[in-house]
Design goal:
With about 450 residues, this protein is of the alpha/beta class. The protein is built from 18 helices and 13 strands.
Length: about 450
C-alpha cells in the first residue's frame, strides 16, 4: 500500500483529501504546515508528498526542497491556484512530479497521484542478478507452431550479443521473452535492467537512462548513475521505444554504436558495455515514414526482429496459458481449484482477448480468487480495453441486467477486501481511478 503525506493548512481541504485518498486505498498522514512535514519525514518514509504551494508559515517550494533533501526518492505533487501556475511550473523544474490547480476534480487528482506512484514503481524495477527464478525458455507456456518457431529462433540468437527488436501488441509477453534471452546470453551474470519509455516525461526519462551530474539542474544534489551505467556488462530492455523523442533517439544511437553515454549536465563520455533489447507495440516503419522515429536508429535496433502475434492469432496457446494461471493463482490464494469445465474452455477459446496474455491472466486470477471449486462459465469476468467489465451471458438473479450484476460483483469484492480500494482494484484487474468511477456511478458506500 502506497503511503502519502498531505501538507495543507486549509483544514477542510486537508480532511477532504485525506478521506478521498484513504478510500482509494492509500495509507495517508496529514500535517498542517511545512514544519510538521519535516518532523514526520525524519521519522517515516513516504512514497508521495502532496503539498499546497501557498501556505502561511512555510511555502510549498521549501517543502519540496526539504523533502528532496530528506528523502530524494519521494515524489512530490503541488496544489496551486490559477494565479500561481508559473510558480508551480518552477517547482517541477526543482524536482516536483507535477502540479494540480484548484478547484480540481477527484478523478483528476487521483490520476496525477497514480502516475506519480507509477513513476516510483518504474524506477524501482531495476533487477540485478539474483538467485531467484532462472527465466529459462521452459518458463514460456505455449502450444502453437508460431510460438515454437519464435522460441527456436531466440534459442539460436540468445547466446550472441546481437541487438534484438521485439514487436507485438501490449500484453503479448515481450518482457518475458527479453528476460529469457538475457538469462541464456553471454551476459547472463550481469544485471537485467528494464524501463518502459512511455511511463516517464522525456526530461525525466533522459536523466534516468543516462544519469546526471551534481548541479545539472535544480534538485540535482549529487551525481546519479543512469540505467545504462547500471546495466553495464548486462542487458538493458527498452520497452515502448517507439514513444521516445527524436532527440532521445539520437542519444540511444550513440550508446549503441559507440558504446558510450554522457550524463545530463556532464562533459565527458563514459564507456558502457550493454546488450540492447528493444520492444514496441507500434509500427516503427510507419513512425519512420512519418518522421517520428530516426531511420538510422531503426536499422540499428532492427538487427534481429522478432514479432509476437496477438493471442487471438494463436488460439492454441489460450488453454495451456489458462491452465498455467489456474495453477499459479490457486497456489497463491490457497484455493482448491484444479481446472476448468468444458463450457468455460469454450468461452475462453471464443473470446478475442484484446488485452492478450495480460488480460487472460487477470481473468483467471479473478476467477480463482472468487471460486470455491473448479472454474466454470460463471467464473468469468472479461475486461476489454475500455476497462468496462463484461460478463458472459449467464442467468442473473431476479432477471437483473449486466450492469446490475457488475455492481453486485464490485460490492462483493469490496466487502471481501473490507473496502480496501487497492486490493479490490487489483482483484478486478482495473485501476483505482476506474474503480472510483464505478463507485460514483453506482453510488456505492461502505453501507451498500
Amino acid at each position: 500500500m502506497a503511503s502519502i503525506l498531505i501538507v495543507e493548512d486549509e483544514g477542510s481541504l486537508r480532511k477532504a483529501l485525506g478521506a478521498l485518498l484513504r478510500s482509494a486505498g492509500y495509507e495517508v498522514s496529514e500535517v498542517t504546515d511545512g514544519e510538521g512535514a519535516f518532523s514526520i519525514l525524519k521519522k517515516n518514509k513516504f512514497d508521495l508528498v502532496l503539498t499546497d504551494l501557498m501556505m502561511k508559515k512555510v511555502s510549498g517550494e521549501e517543502v519540496l526542497k526539504r523533502v528532496k533533501q530528506i528523502s530524494p526518492e519521494t515524489e512530490v505533487v503541488v496544489i496551486t491556484g490559477y494565479g500561481t501556475i508559473q510558480s508551480a511550473v518552477e517547482t517541477i523544474k526543482a524536482g516536483a512530479f507535477d502540479y494540480i490547480t484548484k478547484p480540481f476534480k477527484t478523478e483528476e487528482i487521483l490520476k496525477v497521484i497514480e502516475k506519480a506512484l507509477e513513476k516510483r514503481k518504474v524506477l524501482d524495477r531495476v533487477e540485478v542478478k539474483s538467485e531467484g527464478r532462472k527465466y529459462s525458455f521452459e518458463d514460456i507456456v505455449y502450444a502453437s507452431r508460431g510460438m515454437e518457431n519464435i522460441i527456436q529462433l531466440i534459442k539460436k540468437v540468445a547466446p550472441t550479443d546481437i541487438t534484438i527488436l521485439i514487436e507485438g501488441e501490449s500484453g503479448t509477453g515481450k518482457e518475458l521473452l527479453a528476460r529469457a534471452i538475457h538469462k541464456n546470453s553471454l551476459c547472463k551474470d550481469g544485471p537485467f535492467v528494464t524501463i518502459n519509455c512511455s511511463s516517464l516525461p522525456e526530461t525525466l526519462l533522459e536523466s534516468e537512462l543516462f544519469g546526471y551530474v551534481k548541479g545539472a539542474f535544480t534538485g540535482a544534489l549529487t551525481d546519479k548513475k543512469g540505467l545504462f551505467e547500471i546495466a553495464d556488462s548486462g542487458t538493458i530492455f527498452l520497452d515502448e521505444i517507439g514513444d521516445t523523442s527524436l532527440a532521445l533517439q539520437m542519444r540511444f544511437l550513440r550508446a549503441i554504436q559507440e558504446k558510450e553515454i554522457r550524463k545530463v549536465g556532464g562533459g565527458e563520455f563514459a564507456k558502457v558495455d550493454v546488450r540492447l533489447i528493444a520492444a514496441t507495440n507500434k509500427s516503427l516503419v510507419t513512425l519512420v515514414k512519418e518522421g517520428k522515429f530516426r531511420e538510422d536508429l531503426y536499422y540499428r535496433i532492427n538487427v534481429m526482429p522478432i514479432y509476437i502475434p496477438p493471442l487471438k492469432e494463436r488460439k492454441e496457446d489460450i488453454i495451456p496459458l489458462a491452465n498455467h494461471f489456474v495453477k499459479v493463482y490457486a497456489q497463491r490464494y490457497q484455493k482448491e481449484v484444479k481446472g476448468m469445465d468444458n463450457e468455460m474452455i469454450k468461452e475462453l477459446e471464443n473470446y478475442s482477448w484484446p488485452g492478450n496474455i495480460r488480460e487472460l491472466e487477470h481473468t483467471i486470477e479473478r476467477g480463482v480468487a472468487l471460486a470455491s471449486s473448479d472454474l466454470d462459465k460463471t467464473s468469468l469476468l472479461f475486461l476489454p480495453e475500455d476497462e468496462k467489465l463484461w460478463l458472459p451471458e449467464v442467468e442473473l438473479e431476479n432477471n437483473s441486467t449486466l450492469k446490475e450484476n457488475e455492481k453486485v460483483q464490485i460490492i462483493k469484492i469490496l466487502k471481501k477486501n473490507k473496502w480496501n480500494f487497492t486490493k479490490s482494484a487489483e482483484e478486478l484487474g482495473i485501476s483505482r481511478t476506474t474503480l472510483w468511477r464505478r463507485m460514483k456511478e453506482y453510488r456505492l458506500r461502505e453501507d451498500s
